[in-house]
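Hi there, hope your week has been kind to you so far. No rush at all, and the record is pasted right below.
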Amino acid sequence: MPGLFDRQVARAFGAFPPAGPAWEQLRKMVESAYASADSHRRMVERSLTLMSDELHQRNEELNRRLRSLAEQASVLEGIARGLSLDLTVERIVGMVERRIRGTVSSARSGGRTISQPWAIAAERCERTAVSW
């Protein structure tokens, strides 16, 4: 900041600024302090710019990961719906199987009779040990 101190002195003292070796030493010290403060400010600005850029990059990466996780969650949700449907189908098939087996047992024990196709299907299930 060359000249800043001189302008401030001129504003403070007008046309007759102080003079002498002590005054010159003070002027050099103040100008050095201004230069140091200016250098420090530039360093802080650079640090802030670097941190801002890094945070921006990390934010973009986190957003990419978030989108990926959302897509994975959607896939998992579809799988879960499918599994739920599979479990429902399994329950229905199990109920049908139990009814068939129960009716066949009943038919074998001399109780209620069932139609021939159901009995054959139930016996095939028992013979092949098909687990529904």
